[in-house]
Amino acid sequence: MNVIFVDSVLGTELLQMVSHDVAGILAAAQGESVTFPLGHFKYEFHNLDFYEQDGEIRQELVIYVKKI
After folding, report:
1. Residue 63, CB half-sphere, CA atoms under 13 Å: how many?
2. Is residue 22 very low, low, confident or very high in pLDDT (cuts 50, 70, 90)?
3. pLDDT of the residue at 45
4. Where are the domains of the chain?
5. Would you list the DSSP string of the chain?
6. Model pTM?
7. pLDDT class for 17, splitting at 50, 70, 90?
8. Mean pLDDT over all residues of the chain?
9. In the chain, where does DSSP find H-type helix?
10. Vertex 28, ends 30 and 43: CA angle to 5°?
11. The pairing of beta strand 39-53 with beta strand 2-7
């Protein structure tokens, strides 16, 4: 599944990845902080989005984080 980290204040995409361990990624993101090259961020909330691509329904997890 696609997993996307987004800065909840600026709306900037920080990272896009594909993972089969979505529950693990989400649990880790909800910890103390997430570190990206742009700094340290704290989990805010997440959405599970569904969209159509090439006639197929796909899903992606969007994790919103705020810089600390």
Report:
1. 25
2. very high
3. 97
4. 1-65
5. -EEEEEETTT--EEEEEE-S-HHHHHHHHTSS-EEETTEEEEEEEEEEEEEEETTEEEEEEEEEEEE-
6. 0.90
7. very high
8. 95
9. 22-29
10. 25
11. unpaired
